Amino acid sequence: MELPEDDRLYQAVAFATCRAFRQAETTLPPDVIRALRTAAGRESSAVARNELSNILENIALADRLALPICQDTGVPVIYLTVPPHVPYSGRLLLAVSEGVRIATREVPLRPNVVSPLKRENYGDNTGPGMPSVHVRPGDCFSITVLPKGAGAENMSRLAMLLPTEKEKIPGFIAETMLIAGGRPCPPVVLGVGIGGTFDGCAALAKEALLLPVDTMDPFEQKLCDAVNTLGIGPMGLGGETTALAVKVRTAACHTASLPVAVNVQCWAARRSTVEVEW
Question: What is the pTM of this model?
Answer without folding.
Answer: 0.96
